[in-house]
Write a structure and sequence with these properties.
Layout (H helix, E strand, L loop, with lengths): L2 E7 L2 E6 L11 E9 L2 H11 L9 H4 L11 H17 L4 E9 L9 E13 L6 E11 L5 E12 L8
Antiparallel strand pairs: 1-2, 3-5, 4-7, 5-6, 6-7
Length: about 170
């Protein structure tokens, strides 16, 4: 996790997360910690907040007759946690998320599973229209406690150059 404390006064520091454009290197892999154990409350609240009424996410009796035999964690929650786990390392200084692509869910995530994520830098380039910023593309994968990949996706972000972030 990239967290830097910048001195802003006498014995006073302000935490700043994320990387500047110059800090990203193609091929670098950032392992995001801590992991996150998904609770039944997490999954139920998420389905309520997003109005996802599919019974596979909150009806144990319905889910026990499925091929999985139990409730699944809602897929957008899986995406959200993997993105959240990556923020301190990758997008803590981002000006904007530019998009997600190639989202895949190769294995289910269940209540009680712990997810760990990591991101690989795929591309880094300066912005053509914004001289103090650039675009970084990463591939993030999330794995459960058994090292099974449960999600992967690519994400592009607009990142400031050193000296041009909001918290500089």
């Amino acid at each position: 996790m990239v967290v830097v404390a910048k001195e802003i006064g006498d014995k006073r520091y302000r935490e700043s997360a994320g990387r500047y454009l110059e800090d990203f290197e193609i091929g670098a892999v950032y392992e995001h910690r801590p992991g996150r154990t998904i609770t039944e409350s997490d999954n139920t609240w998420f389905t309520l907040l997003t109005m996802n009424q599919h019974p596979m996410h909150f009806d144990k009796e319905f889910a026990k007759d499925s091929e999985f035999g139990r409730c699944l964690v809602a897929s957008p929650l899986t995406v959200g946690i993997a993105v959240g786990q990556s923020v301190a390392d990758t997008s803590g200084k981002a000006i904007a998320n530019l998009g997600w692509s190639d989202i895949k869910l190769p294995a289910p995530l269940f209540v009680g599973d712990t997810m760990y994520s990591e991101s690989e830098v795929l591309a880094v380039r300066e912005s053509k229209s914004r001289p103090n910023q650039g675009i970084v593309t990463i591939k993030t994968i999330g794995k459960n406690q058994d090292d099974v990949v449960v999600i992967s996706f690519e994400r592009s972000m607009l990142i400031p150059k050193r000296g041009h972030a909001v918290d500089d």
